[in-house]
Amino acid sequence: MLEKIQFVKPEEIEARSMAIIEEELKAKNAFHRWSPGEYAVVRRCIHTSADFEYADQLYFSDGAVETALRAIKDGAHIITDTKMAASGINKKRLSVFEGQVHCFMDDPQVAREAKARGITRSAVCMEGGSQVEGKKIFAVGNAPTALIRLYELIREGKVQPELIIGVPVGFVNVVESKELIIQAGVPCIVARGRKGGSNIAAAICNALIYQCS
Amino acid sequence: MLEKIQFVKPEEIEARSMAIIEEELKAKNAFHRWSPGEYAVVRRCIHTSADFEYADQLYFSDGAVETALRAIKDGAHIITDTKMAASGINKKRLSVFEGQVHCFMDDPQVAREAKARGITRSAVCMEGGSQVEGKKIFAVGNAPTALIRLYELIREGKVQPELIIGVPVGFVNVVESKELIIQAGVPCIVARGRKGGSNIAAAICNALIYQCS
Asked: Which of A2, A114, A176 is closest, CB to CB, to B4?
C-alpha cells in the first residue's frame, strides 16, 4: 500500500494543492470572474474543505475584499463567534498590522447574560464585539443568531463593521440569516446556503491576511 | 427580511437540526445500517458541515465505536495534528474520564525536527503522540503525512492506538493515506475521499465523548 504514496516535500504540498484546485475549477467550468483577491478566498475555502461547492456559493459584495485588506493593514480586529475559528486564524501574521482576534464565547458573563435573556451566547458575543475599539471585521462561522444580532446592531447604528464574514453552518435559520446579512448594506463575504463553519471562517480570514503581506 | 427568521430557543436548535438531518437522510435513502453509536458520529459530522456526503463516505472498522467508548471511559488521551481540532474537542467532558487532548504542532522542537528531517510537523507530532502514556486515540484532521507516519509506527510496533480517526482533507496523498490506514489493522473511523478537516475530527471526537456520559 505504501508504494501508492508519492513523496511530496512539505513546503510544496500547499502549492501543489492550489494548482490541483485551479485545474479542476477550470475543468468543471466553475472558474468564475473573480477578482484576484476574491479568487484567493475561494481557493483557500476549497483548500480547507475539498468542497468545490464554495466556488458557486461564495458571495462577495462589491469591493469587499479590497475594503477588508485596507482595514487589516489599518490594524482591524477580527471578532469571531467560535473558538475553533479563533484558533485557526493566523494571529501572528495579523499582529504584524496590530490587529487581534477576539472571541468571547468562553466568558462566564456571556453565558450568564445569554441565559438570562433567552438568547444565544453567540448573539451576546456580537454585542461585546461591537464594543471593541477600532476597525472591526466580524467572522461568524457557527451561529446564524450571531448574524441576526449583527444585522440588528447595524440597523440600530451601534456598529459599522469593515467586513462581515457570514459563514455559519447548519439547518435552522442559516440560509435566511446569510441572505439577511447580504441586505445589511455593509461589505460582506457570505457562503450562501447551509454550508460553512469555523474552518471556512478561519480560511477566509487567512486568505485576506496573507494578501496583506 | 427579519420576518423570515423563525425564533427558535437556543436550547432547541441542536435537537431541531438533528431531526432535520435524520429526515433528510431518510428522504435521500442515505440512511445506512449504522449501529446507534456509528449513527451518532455520522449525524454529528453532517451537523458540523451540512454536508450529506459524509453519510456515504464515513467508514467504520468493525466495533470501532464500541472500542473507542471503552477507551474513553478508561481515560484514553486524544492526540491530534491540528490546533483547531484540539480547540473544538470538548475537553471538559473528556476530563470527566481523566483523558486529555494533546497537540504538539506549536512545539518549537517539533518544527526544528521536521525541518531537519525534511518531513512535516504533523508526522513528527505523531511520534510525540506515540510516547503519551496510557490509551491513545489519534484524531488526524489535517495532514495525510500524519496518517502515513502512524501507519509506519504501527508496523514498527511502536504504537497501538485504540482508535484512529482518519479525516485529513485535501488533494495530495489524502485519499491514499486514508485507504492505507484502513489496512493498518487497528480500529478506525475514516472519511473516505478528499473531504474531512479539523471540524470533522473534532465532531467525531465529541460524538464519541458525548456517548460516554
From this structure: A176
